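Exercise 3.2. Students should predict the tertiary structure of the chain below and write it as structure tokens, then compare their answer with the key that follows.

Predict this chain's 3D structure.
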Amino acid sequence: MNEYLVLVVEDDKPIRNLITTTLKMNDYRFITAVRSNEAIMLSASHKPDIIILDLGLPDIDGVEVIEHIRTWSDVPIIIVSARSEDRDKITALDKGADDYLTKPFSVDELLARLRVIQRRLMKSENISVTEFVNGRLRIDYVSGCVHLDDEELHLTPIEYKLLCLLAKNVGKVLTHKYIIQSVWGTPADNSEASLRVFMATLRKKLSDSSQALIQTHIGIGYRMMKL
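Answer key:
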């Protein structure tokens, strides 16, 4: 049995059954909620390791559930929603969601997203992380050096901050707004244009690994993939 507990928050019975059956077949432990208030109570009392959350709930909108939970917990939240507009995805991610799947979705993709979250959780359990390794990429946080295979990359301070931010959130979609606030602090009118420029130069320095390593979510942001 999987050691991680998943809270499934979904009021649509067929979809809830699909998710829970998938979890059961893959040896996940899980609990369910059909309303927002129930989800908030269960997240506080059972302290799940991962939450799968629908946004269109009957009592309180799922975005408000994210806001409530984020006041006391950083538990990974995967959104599964019929809302497909970029603004809905950006709002949920900015409020603290870790990932976003649009209905209808593939159960294989859901399982893949769960595995990414699990790898992140396992890594975070290491109290002192001094090095990040992902495929050919290695970041030494102590020395501030970055290597691709055995070759040291010469990054600007902004490029290094961008890379470390993506690495520390590997598998998570980071919105343009979140990245800009984390790296530059104060957004400016040309912030997104500057971000695109720095991301392009960073990818160029990462050479042919960039297409597999850093994924662009058009109109939303970026994600570092776990290789």
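Discussion points: The first strand starts at residue 5 and ends at 9. The chain is about 45% helix and 20% strand.
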